[in-house]
């Protein structure tokens, strides 16, 4: 499973990228608003993220009609070669995704919650589909079970475009709230988990790692002083 960072914060992206395991970034309007982003600076900001990350960077459309989504998607895709256009999973989004995919523009269908939504996203030519785990949990449903169903359903079929393996749809486990979500997403076979920076840090933490390191360093002090 690959790790994407779910943020629009340049400092977080720069720091996570320096760890050497970051495969991409996802943003959304909420994440851009959270960093105090301004409308006029949005394309330049996406460009800055794209320069920091060696991998796909999802930038979300906010139009709700297919023509508008397509126009916005083309403009976003023109910012940098690693931009992926994020489109909501709905009728107008599906139609726009087909047009964008036909033009060779990669689409990440977002706000996906059900198996039929994911299958339709795949049929429309989406390169990525993002099932939201945490938001199901927030509403007292089991988000991981829904993620599992989507992974199983997509794996039942061959969505490889003309036999090109790396063009096949990938599942991005999104709305990730904890390291346990990451663990379970990997065990369920999600291709990617997009995680907030605080969760990415938690993924590297374990009390036995901390106590083990302390004892190794203490023992090395004994060696030094022997
Ligand atoms: C996915 O691409 C979304 O940006 C994100 O994971 C949404 O997560 P949230 O439910 O924490 O807002």
Question: What attributes characterize this protein structure?
Answer:
single chain; 226 residues; alpha/beta; TIM Barrel; 8-stranded parallel barrel; 11 helices; 50% helix
Helix vs. strand class: alpha/beta
Gross morphology is globular
Radius of gyration: 19 Å
Low-confidence stretches: none
The CATH architecture designation is: Alpha-Beta Barrel
CATH class: Alpha Beta
Look up the CATH topology: TIM Barrel
Q: Per DSSP, what share of the residues sits in E-state strands of 2 or more residues?
A: 15-25%
Descriptive overview:
By secondary structure, this protein is an alpha/beta fold. The protein has one domain (2-225): Aldolase class I (TIM Barrel). It has helices at residues 10-18, 29-34, 42-52, 66-77, 91-102, 115-123, 134-138, 143-155, 179-188, 197-202, 207-225, and strands at 2-6, 22-26, 57-60, 83-88, 107-112, 128-131, 170-173, 192-195. The chain has an eight-stranded parallel β-barrel with strand order 1-2-3-4-5-6-7-8, surrounded by seven helices. α4 (66-77) packs across α5 (91-102), α6 (115-123) runs parallel beside α8 and α8 (143-155) runs parallel beside α9 (179-188). The termini are far apart. The site of erythose-4-phosphate has 12 residues, from α7.
């Amino acid at each position: 499973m690959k790790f994407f960072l779910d943020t629009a914060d340049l400092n977080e992206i720069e720091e996570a990228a320096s760890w050497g395991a970051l495969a991409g970034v996802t943003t959304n309007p909420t994440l851009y608003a959270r960093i105090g982003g301004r409308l006029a600076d949005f394309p330049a900001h996406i460009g800055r993220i794209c320069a920091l990350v060696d991998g796909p960077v999802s930038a979300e459309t906010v139009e709700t009609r297919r023509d508008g989504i397509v126009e916005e998607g083309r403009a976003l895709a023109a910012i940098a070669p690693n931009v992926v256009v994020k489109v909501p999973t709905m009728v107008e989004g599906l139609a726009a995704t087909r047009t964008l995919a036909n033009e060779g523009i990669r689409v990440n269908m977002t706000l996906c919650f059900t198996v039929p939504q994911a299958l339709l996203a795949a049929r429309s030519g989406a390169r990525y589909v993002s099932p939201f785990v945490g938001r199901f949990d927030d509403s007292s449903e089991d988000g991981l079970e829904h993620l599992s169903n989507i992974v199983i359903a997509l794996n039942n079929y061959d969505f490889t475009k003309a036999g090109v393996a790396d063009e096949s749809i990938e599942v991005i486990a999104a709305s990730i709230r904890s390291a346990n979500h990451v663990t379970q997403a990997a065990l369920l076979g999600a291709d990617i988990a997009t995680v907030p920076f605080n969760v990415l840090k938690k993924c590297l933490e374990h009390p036995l790692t901390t106590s083990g390191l302390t004892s190794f360093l203490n023992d090395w002090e004994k060696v030094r002083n022997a």
